[in-house]
Specification:
5 helices; single chain; about 70% helix; mainly alpha
Length: about 80
């Protein structure tokens, strides 16, 4: 395999990784994927959840507005 073919194959693998996986699909279905991304980006940058209170509050508000708390609450079997 030539270097060009190898590089092309690696690029194709990276592109395939951009496809939404099960986790992404669940986040998108909440209606709060943008807020989730901002919250996780904040943590990634600051490494301390206490410094991401605004992002967390924005995510919580979105979560409640989309009634995800009802969707994810525990139910007795």
């Amino acid at each position: 395999m030539s270097k060009a073919e190898s590089d092309s194959q690696k690029a194709a693998t990276v592109e395939d990784d951009d496809e939404p996986d099960e986790w992404d699909k669940r986040i998108f279905s909440t209606g709060c994927s943008e807020e989730n991304m901002k919250m996780t980006d904040c943590y990634y940058e600051k490494k301390d959840w206490r410094l991401c209170k605004n992002e967390m509050e924005t995510f919580r508000k979105c979560w409640k507005e989309h009634q995800n708390d009802k969707r994810t609450e525990s139910k007795d079997a």
